[in-house]
Design brief:
The chain is α/β, with parallel strands linked by helices. The chain has twelve helices and nine strands. α3 crosses α4 and α5 packs antiparallel against α6.
Amino acid sequence: MSANYVPHPIPYQGSKRNLAATILKYAPSHVPRMIEPFAGSAAISLAAAQRKLASRFWINDAHQPLVALWSKIINRPDSIAAEYRKLWEQQLGREREYFDEVRDSFNKSQSPEHFLYLLARCVKAAIRYNALGQFNNTPDNRRKGARPEEMHLRILGASSLLKGRTRVTALDYQAVLNQCTPDDLIYMDPPYQGVCQVRDQRYAPKIAHDEFIDHLADLNRRQCLYIVSYDGRTGDKQFGKPLPKVLRLVHLEICAGRSTQATLLGRTDVTYESIYLSPALASAISHDNNSKPKHRVAFA
């Protein structure tokens, strides 16, 4: 296994696992604590732990079933791996019907092992809930989910990186930001404007754009170090408005590769994700030659 391998036990739509190495080029060489208020798959924390960029971690997400799953992955890896194996093996020969049975069970119990199985099997590894708060995504019938042996390795790898030095919570992001200090590095990947401004059952609770900006301004006043992933563009099509200039953020565009939708339409449009560096972070890394931006930069 490569020394640069980063285990990702939670498949997750929108995960930054493929961009983590690039994003972390704009992090200090080491911080006491790394915080993800919108953790999701915790791709940045895992990559930072693998690179020894932080001593401690705080993984937070408002989605409680996801947090319960992370807690079990970190603290009881063999148990959750064994439970996943049992579910995976029981599906064989009746994968479609079995998925519906597990989904029904999860909607009643919210159990971590059921949630992991659903994420491994559902279309685009995307969390979808109906108006009643029930998980309602459908299975990808082309695949059975990660094999138990592979999932076990991912779970053990993530646990070895985070166990004993990670706080796991299901708080509102504002409560997390209020506890951040200038010694922390905060990585934020909130729901993008394109999904916050329409009815979308993937994200609960919703995040108010203006309120989020107010919290960034407060972090600036407290000289906090943070990186925000927020919207971007595909070709000439912009997604969402840039964060306001009054925040004095450094805006960078990171190439995320060719757009899947464009490829299906025979086009070659490339997607760029926007990241923003806080003024305090930009100042902190300005003396590190290895952290100088190597991508398209603008001052937001």
